[in-house]
Amino acid sequence: MSSIPNLEEIDERYFVRGRMEIQGVLSELVYRGELLEIGHEGEEPLLQATLLDVNRSGVIFDVAPDASPPKSALPSTLAFIARPDGIRVQFHCAGVESVKWDGRPVYRAALPDCVARLQRQESLRTWIAEGHVISIAFFDADGALLGEQRLRDLSAGGLGIIADTGWAQAMAFRVERVRFTVAPFGDIDCAVALRHLTIQDDDLARIGLAFLQPAAEMRGRVQRFVLENELQRRQVETDESDGSDGA
User: Fold this and answer.
1) Distance of CA 207 to the CA centre of its chain
2) Domain with CATH 2.40.10.220 in the chain
3) DSSP per-residue string spanning 160-188
């Protein structure tokens, strides 16, 4: 099961921030009876839930009856993700608490401050296997090389790397442009903006960069590579699963 992506890694253009618009997006999930995955960003979902009601004061939701952890153990802040018609809808809510709704125990949470809506091609992100090394060159505003790092993940909206904490803290805020190759589709050369810098431990940091106004041709190269890499990755997983079943 895939982990819940971090909202901070999503480009600003995909966010809905008006309260009425947010209520409209979430009310559509209520109307359709969409199943949502809930949990913590960056981790696998804890359980599944459905939205029951949305209003100005918050959202009402319930979880699957066989939920694990048990209902009583829900954290006070949760990330929610749904995929109606291939569109990823993601948000997080604070103030989760038990309430009575229509005579039964459910949950209420504060209305989210924003909701991300991404089409399938925009939200598809591929992780690069350990054995597949793609080196990225990073440049500052004057075109000076800041260093090279290995690509960790890629989507049409941007990329992610994991670097030494020292390099990340010294260079991440200076990066203005990246160059790398996604064989066999071609070269990527694009201006970028820092989305996030997350210190994972004393030695490593996670950096997310957003592509700024990528050319249509470059965007196409990235999307073709992402799709091809995902097909290969899933084929490897299938082959490994078949091998273990036959053992």
Assistant:
1) 13
2) 124-246
3) EEEEEHHHHHHHGGG--EEEEEETTTEEE
CATH number of 124-246: 2.40.10.220
E-strand ranges in 56-184 read 58-63, 78-82, 88-93, 97-101, 104-109, 115-118, 125-127, 135-139, 145-155, 158-164, 177-182
Per-residue pLDDT of the chain (247 residues; tens, 9 = 90+): 567 877 877 777 788 888 888 999 999 899 888 889 999 887 888 888 999 999 888 999 998 776 555 555 688 899 999 988 678 899 999 999 999 998 889 999 999 999 998 765 555 778 898 888 999 999 999 999 999 999 999 988 889 999 999 999 999 999 999 999 999 999 999 999 998 888 877 789 989 998 988 888 898 899 889 888 888 877 777 766 666 555 5
Residue of 43, 52, 63 lying closest to 2 (CA atoms): 43
Domain with CATH 2.30.110.10 in the chain: 7-120
How far is the C-alpha of 165 from the C-alpha of 172, rounded, in Å? 10
Q: Which CATH superfamily is domain 7-120 in?
A: Electron Transport, Fmn-binding Protein; Chain A (2.30.110.10)
